[in-house]
Amino acid sequence: MSAYVWTWIAIAAAGLAAWATKLAGHTVPEAWLDNPRVHRVAAFVTVALLSALVAVQTFGSGRGLTVDARVAALAVAAVLLWRRAPFIVVVAVAALVAAGLRALGWG
Amino acid sequence: MAGVSLDTARQHALSVSLATGAYGLSFGALSVAAGLDVWQTLALSLLVFSGGSQFAFVGVLGAGGGPWAAVATSTFVGIRNGFYGVGLAPVLRPMRGWRRAWAAQVTIDESTAVALAQPHDDLEARRTGFWWTGVGVFLAWNAITVVGALLGSRLGDPADWGLDAAAAAAFLALVWPRLASRRAQAVAGASAVVALALTPVAPAGVPVLAAAAVAIVAGWGHPRPEEVPE
Fold first, then answer.
1. For burial by CB atoms within 10 Å, which of B31, B86, B90, B127 has the most?
2. ipTM of the complex
3. CA distance A5 to chain B (A)
4. Where are the membrane-spanning stretches (chain A) (predicted)?
């Protein structure tokens, strides 16, 4: 088979694996979820994964870490959140800060 | 009040869909540059539908890796989506058949974050947040993937528009309301440190996934109920 066909097979396999992974979470037995320990861990897991995601999105650069315009933008976003600014303002200002700093040639 | 909280959930869903969808430009352009055609690129967005996994898939192929290495890496990067389903179960159940199949497909970082950012005693707002974000990102991401694949690198870098910072700020804003207790704040801080420490040394997907260990430690003991982020 050609490389082109193999790529199609791989796409189908990756799609099926991605969907099966997502579905697995939704099909854990009800009894497990009733277990207080599982319930607590599940509540902390989403906080942990999303916090890790924010950290990597802010400092990650391929296989390395870097401090650039994103860090300044996230610092401003954190201050706005602390001041109870609306969601859309936080997101828009973060984009403006990062784009502005880059237009000025930093980060 | 119910109307207000549903509006909030829909506003979150709409802004997150647009900001995330814009990244479809990068994915489309990168996928074509890695040697896939427009149809293959769209198929990845429709079927895999998880940004990190898709970037990993075309990244492996673009670097000369084989198709099975691409499948393995993409699947590994997507494991966190499985955890999200467990966290969402109390919000979305009962579900069966096609509804559950479709909910699984749109269980991603964004839909989980928006759902759980809504007040924990307002199930309707949480469900609205999940479905509007899941379907909204699905439509935007797939449509804009095609634009990116057709226009390629002529579009410039979304980072020039600050969209990378906007995405990170959106996730920060969504996790923020769940950081009320000291224990939740400690979990968030420790998770960030673990992920950053592993970034230079671990393969793609491991740093974020490793943060789940922090959650297991935090939830295993007996925290007071008010310390658990609902």
1. B31
2. 0.91
3. 10
4. 41-59, 71-101
